[in-house]
Design brief:
Belongs to the opioid growth factor receptor family. Helices cover 60% and strands 4% of the residues. With 167 residues, the protein is mainly α. A two-stranded antiparallel sheet has the order 1-2.
Length: 167
């Protein structure tokens, strides 16, 4: 299901699914209808995870009313983390880097700040963070993660000297 909605240029868990070509991605981006469907698919998956896309322009997110039940599902079933990684990669492929940033920050906040998704924490740090295409935004997110990670001296996702000096 997820691989059909969020195709990539790489093989995923379903080896029968053909990876996208650069030409296909460019054709998708040129089609307003395809891009609108893509955003609807993103909203559908967010809803499944207990998240709402508040602003389609910025990518801002918030918890849905049913977030507690949905987060319980996220915490219990780790295969969701693979799907979220795939969605994040596809967002980058389709030119929705701003959506990537907001989704990664959402998961960092829920795992590191609010503590609601403890079983998603490693995936958020090991995989979600590094799907963000913008180097500057990725650095900002790594710094955000470092600021909220406890114990801070155990943070291994960036050099401590640079994180301490980051502005």
């Amino acid at each position: 299901f997820c691989f059909r909605l969020f195709p990539l240029r790489e093989h995923g868990m379903n080896w029968r699914a053909k990876p996208l070509t650069s030409q296909e991605i460019q054709a998708f981006k040129r089609s307003k209808e395809v891009m609108e469907r893509f955003v609807r698919a993103y909203e559908l998956m967010l809803g499944f995870y207990g998240i709402i896309l508040v602003n389609k322009e910025t990518g801002e997110l918030k918890r849905a009313e049913n977030w507690a039940d949905r987060f319980e599902n996220l915490n219990r079933f780790s295969h969701n983390n693979l799907r979220i990684t795939r969605i994040l990669k596809c967002l980058g492929e389709m030119g929705y880097e701003r959506y990537q940033v907001h989704l990664v920050k959402f998961f960092l906040t829920e795992t590191l700040v609010k503590g609601t998704l403890p079983n998603v924490k490693r995936s958020a740090l090991d995989y979600f963070l590094f799907t963000v295409r913008s180097k500057r935004r990725r650095r900002e997110l790594v710094h955000y993660a470092w600021q909220h990670f406890r114990p801070q001296e155990d943070f291994v996702w960036g050099p401590k000297e640079k994180l301490q000096k980051y502005r």
